[in-house]
Design goal:
By secondary structure, the protein is of the alpha/beta class. Helices cover 31% and strands 24% of the residues. It has 14 helices and 21 strands. Strands 1, 2, 3, 4, 5, 6 and 16 form a seven-stranded mixed beta sheet that branches. Helix 1 packs parallel to helix 5, helix 1 runs parallel beside helix 9 and helix 3 packs across helix 4.
Length: 470
Amino acid sequence: MTEPRDFDVVVVGAGPAGTAAALRAADLGAKTALVTRDAFGGMAANDGPIPVRTLAHAARLAREARQLSRYGIAVENPRLDYSSLVARAREVVAEARRHSTLLTQINSAGVALFEHAGTASFINAQTIRSEGAPLLRGKKIVLCPGGVSRALTVPGAELAVTPADAFSLTAAPKSMIVIGAGATGVQVASIFNALGSSVVLCQTGLRIIPSEDADVSLEVTTGFREDGIDVRENFGAIEQLEKISGGVRLTVNDGARPTSLDATLVVCAIGWRADAEALNLALPGVETNARGFIEVDDSLRTSAPHVYAAGDVIGRSMLVPPALRDGFIAGNNAAEAERLTVTASVEPIASFTDPEYAKVGLTEEQARGQYDVIVSRASYAETTRPIIDGRTRGFCKIVVDRTTHQFLGCHIVGERAVEVAQMAAIAMTAEMTVDAVARIPLSFPTYANVFGRAALRAVRKLGTNAAVAI
């Protein structure tokens, strides 16, 4: 067997968490290797937010084209060339890669990068083997392999595709059933509905996007139904999938009797699991929890003292910003710098659906269970910029601590909600009071004004004074 190459830190996975971990370790002077199964950037760059956001932009353009006549612009009916759209998504991924400062920093920091190396696994407690890379032995190992879509466990489950598969199609399907209405499922449903597919969105629970504020779920559901998506809550138990002429038949039992739905394509979006099965975690003594995610302490150290983990594989907030933060912490600690720990922080969460939705902090229900709160709300329909743009569906809702006047949560549904939520994230991170936010002279007319209006109304409810926010 070839002798392994020795490093201070070996990082597995080059998504946001792995990239941040490798860069931090190298910046601290550790001899660092970064090995990844596929291309640098991981799922986030190659199959996740970047290409999906490109498709969401196309959906937005298609939606905007449908209201051109309202503004006196006459055009022929636009037609979707889905293969060209997929090609554009690939172009965006390639361009983002070319301009990636992270890749430049990785190279300039002296990290030994091994791309397209295949699946990594431990062959002993400190050595990683990948088919397309040399053996890598590390004093410390940081595991950031990411996650993969959960699959159905019913007869015919193989007939359902993953969201990534759906976004890689060569044509938009005539009809689609989306199983699971969490953040990923609603995004799939919204994009393909805008691109012309007939979509049924199925949720076994009481409401879609159940992790969001209840008002957000209701508003998004209403918007989806107005736009033609068939939203079905309390969907029942899926019994089987079977191949039929032209597509797939799904059989479901709601407790009364089995019924069936037919579609060109069935997309399974029932969750995410750790992509860790091939790692041979028993060799280094790394333990996982009942859900299959790697267990870590507040410094992101696993049950094996020399192994750390970050990103989707630990099953916490499966988003890019916390992955970057946690990767930095894991790389820092693996390089034996001053110990850092993961602390509670503001994490904006959003989805590029139509209507968009975004949140920062606690839901109203969560906040009421812990604090004496006031809730303030402003609608898009009363805000000038959405009126100008013909995008009056939605609202901004803020939850404030009555005693301290601090923001506890902010929830937005509507056009540019994802962008507006960043204001709330900044205000909360800076520990600004709602009074201070209400005094900010926001540019007019902008979508941010809906956040300013909600802040001003909160100030009035609290009985304090602030300049009028437009």
